[in-house]
Write a structure and sequence with these properties.
This protein has about 425 residues and is of the alpha/beta class. It has 2 domains: about 290 residues, TIM Barrel (Alpha-Beta Barrel), CATH 3.20.20; about 120 residues, no CATH class. The chain contains 17 helices and 8 strands. An 8-stranded parallel β-sheet has the order 3-2-1-8-7-6-5-4.
Length: about 425
């Protein structure tokens, strides 16, 4: 069994760069693409460090690459970074996937849309071949268009499928969705075209078809995975959001109950959640009672907790001091803290603590800049100061801070 997450690695300060068509010179494309491959390599290294074995690679690594006005030869140009990434993936046993966006509709009634979908899917398949040795690393797709009737939509999909490259056909997986094609619908189609299908629990809750439990549907879907590892998508409904919206973080207790119901050695679980790798690491830690990473995990959350709830900060400290630490208690406190609003006094206190790592090594200019921030602390965004402090953590290579969730806590703000 492996747990994973999708696309954006919150805890890795490296971020992908995008590009508009108007600025897409060959030089600019190469610079952006090379940078983004470096981010992907960093994300995979981060995953390896934290025991994450499943990762959906972002479709934004090569922005605009399938646009009709872009002619950019990329496979041979980036052979070295591709080989480095593939070696990391191979050595770690990490399983990669990709998921083209919502406008990739293989059964659209508009032929131009279908043409673009074929190009897009084939590109995703070809890109995966460059970064993983796994010939079956999946390209996940919704059936999407059901205009007219499902029978016609399925017929169009099968015609679109036949246009894909052989490699793409081997990689394609179908996923049930929340409106059109239910779990039963995609299973029937997957059996016809001989591809695996991925069960999504939240989509199924909104668009049910089988009178079966999730575990029973997963067992039905397992029949489409001959010689391959089965994969499902798991998410939780966000509080006070539209039905189907993913939660900001995963409730570990709810996840553990679900995992106990459906788990199996050959089942991979992709978490779809706003805080991405942070929830993934949470669930991995809660599944492993003997995990020795508790001090490292507390170090990552330390200043985020400090800036929101000093009492909770001390309660977590007591878990270590009294020998009563376990991840359930730890994450229960943390999950309550991240829901709290801001307190400028506590935020200022946390800023001063983090600055302590740099006050002796910072340049005179950096010290002056910090002093100005403190002088105007009540009038500027705390995120502006955090961006400055993170730049110092990177510059002075303070590993303890570079992965601190303190710098990425904006994701928890409403």
């Amino acid at each position: 069994m492996a747990l994973g997450y999708a696309c954006i690695c919150i805890g890795d300060y490296n971020r992908l760069k995008s590009l508009r068509l108007a600025g897409a010179s060959e030089q600019k494309l190469e610079m952006i693409y090379r940078h983004n491959l470096g981010v992907l390599r960093s994300n995979i290294s981060y995953n390896i460090k934290h025991g994450i074995k499943l990762f959906r690679v972002s479709s934004d690594i090569f922005p605009l690459i399938t646009h009709s006005e872009i002619a950019f030869e990329w496979k041979n140009r980036f052979r070295e970074p591709f080989d480095e990434i593939k070696a990391l993936v191979s050595d770690s046993g990490m399983r990669l996937s990709m998921h083209p966006g919502q406008y990739t509709v293989l059964n659209s009634g508009n032929q131009e849309v279908v043409d673009k979908a074929v190009v897009e899917i084939d590109h995703h398949s070809e890109f995966l071949s460059c970064i993983t040795p796994d010939a079956y690393a999946p390209v996940v797709l919704h059936v999407n268009s059901a205009r007219g009737d499902k029978k016609t939509a399925v017929s169009r999909f099968k015609k679109g499928f036949e246009r894909l490259s052989d490699a793409s056909k081997k990689r394609l997986c179908l996923e049930n969705d929340e409106k059109g094609f239910s779990a039963r619908d995609i299973y029937d189609l997957a059996c016809e075209i001989d591809v695996p299908c991925i069960f999504d629990n939240l989509h199924n809750a909104m668009n049910p078809s089988y009178e079966l439990s999730d575990k029973e549907i997963i067992e039905v879907f397992s029949k489409t995975y001959v010689g391959k590892r089965q994969k499902i998508h798991y998410s939780q409904q966000a509080e006070d959001k539209r039905p189907g919206a993913h939660s900001v973080t995963i409730s570990h207790r709810e996840f553990l109950r679900y995992y106990g119901d459906v788990s199996g050695e050959d089942l991979d679980i992709m978490l779809e959640v706003k805080d991405k790798d942070l929830s993934c690491i949470k669930c991995i830690n809660c599944l492993d009672a003997k995990n020795s990473s508790r001090y490292r995990e507390w170090a990552r959350y330390k200043y985020l907790v400090m800036e929101k709830d000093i009492e909770a900060y001390h309660r977590i400290g007591k878990l270590f001091n009294t020998g009563s630490f376990d991840f359930d208690k730890f994450y229960t406190i943390v999950d309550a803290v991240i829901k709290k609003g801001s307190d400028r006094g506590l935020e200022t206190n946390a800023v001063m603590h983090v600055w302590g790592y740099f006050k002796k090594t910072a340049s005179d200019e950096e010290k002056r800049r910090y002093a100005k921030y403190i002088e105007k602390i009540n009038d500027i965004s705390i995120e502006t100061i955090k961006t400055f402090l993170l730049s110092l953590a990177v510059k002075y290579d303070i590993g303890y801070l570079k992965e601190s969730i303190y710098f990425f806590g904006e994701i928890y703000k409403k």
